[in-house]
Amino acid sequence: MELLLMTAVALSLGFAYHAYRQRQALNGLRSDLDRRDLKIRKLRSQLDLVERQHQMSEALYTTISDLGFDLAMLVDEDLKVVLVNRPADNLFAGRNPIDADLLDLTGSSELLSLVQMSLREQESLEEHFVIADANYRARTQVIKRGETRCLIGVVMQDITELVHLNRARRDLVANISHELRTPITRIRLIIEGLFLEADKPKRKASIQSLKEIAMETDALLWLAQELLDLSMIESGEAILRLVKTPLSEVTDEAIERLQPQAEMKDLTIVSQVPLKVEALCDADQLKRVLGNLIHNAIKWSPKGEEIAITATALADEITVSVLDKGPGVPESLRERVFERFYQADVSRSGDEGAGLGLAICKHIVEAHGGRIWAEGNSQGRGGIFAFTLLKAEASFQPDFPEAESERRPTAVSESVQPQ
């Protein structure tokens, strides 16, 4: 009996010791698990930090590439696109640019040659070329990847507008050179003719020569005024003072100024502007508009014809029209004739004018809160340029398009009456 009791006690002690050892092992495992959990949490925290830094770096790269360039892309040594920014992605709308062949994607052999040369020479290069009717300036940058591998970064800037402006500037210089050379040469020849006559100059011939000198001088003054007007308008220095003005008075003064030019072509200028019509306008600037339109009508009208100026008041607006018997403006060109330096038909107009008059008219009329347009004659012969002004009783609220990049003349409405 005692033996059994001792055996039971021994077994109990053995089980207790085994349980104690198991508890110690379990506690050790729990400690190991806690340490591992802590290490995993630290690793996850570090991983999250790295991911956030990567996302911030990617966002920063994307933002810089989107703001700094119209297009940016990475090309590998196989001339495959591996990365593009959003503007580049927009250019290739409808196509997935990633992994696409550079030549197939852009269709530009010039860009392909630039990238190939950059790979071969291992240096940055720059070139101009055309893609999809747009002019681009591209620059490449070699990006090393280890000892033998590399990528080519390509950044591109759309310079189409700059090219157009440079072309317009060249055209302007050429036009002005021609416009200045022609009247100056004619004046010189006329004066030489007067002084080289062997006999005493006849009064009639002298008067005619002086008239021709005056006409050519007017042409020079007209060109100089157009350049000055355009410069002031685009710099924002032109200020319109809008006052209640009888429209017929402004029209008569504009006609009187251009009457000598009309007489040289035996043209008659008729004003059909009612005396009672009054507009809210700057008289001096409005005379420039009417002067340019009448000058344009004189240039295109056949000899012996009539130029008519009319005004019609409707609601809060007055529509002023200048009608001539010339060829008129084709429908396809009725928007373009108001562009700076644009001339509708140089061969038919004798290359006369620098293409500034109608652009100036458009600036001034829109600064008055009106609009200007060209239309064909309802009788099928001749052309009409028309524009709108506000009635004297109307309130002035100019509404310029937000996308308009050029500066407009500043309009100031005044309650004073014209003197």
Entry summary:
With 419 residues, the protein is an alpha+beta fold. It has ten helices and 13 strands. The strands form two sheets. Strands 6, 7, 8, 9, 10, 11, 12 and 13 form an eight-stranded mixed β-sheet that branches. Strands 2-1-5-4-3 form a five-stranded antiparallel β-sheet.
**Largest sheet: number of strands, sense, barrel closure:** 8 strands, mixed
**How many domains would you count in the coordinates?**
2
CATH architecture name of the largest domain = 2-Layer Sandwich
The CATH homology group name of the largest domain: Histidine kinase-like ATPase, C-terminal domain
Name of the CATH first level of the largest domain: Alpha Beta
The structural class is alpha+beta
The residue-averaged pLDDT reads: 77
Are there runs of 5+ residues with pLDDT below 50, and where? 346-351, 399-407, 415-419
Describe this structure in words.
By secondary structure, the protein is of the alpha+beta class. The protein has 2 domains: 66-158, PAS domain (Beta-Lactamase, 2-Layer Sandwich); 164-413, Heat Shock Protein 90 (2-Layer Sandwich), CATH 3.30.565. It has 10 helices and 13 strands. Strands 6, 7, 8, 9, 10, 11, 12 and 13 form an 8-stranded mixed sheet that branches. The protein has a 5-stranded antiparallel sheet with strand order 2-1-5-4-3. A hairpin with a 2-residue loop joins strand 9 and strand 10 (317-324). The longest helix is centred in the N-terminal third of the chain and has 67 residues, at 2-68. It is elongated. Residues 346-351, 399-407 and 415-419 have low confidence and may be disordered.
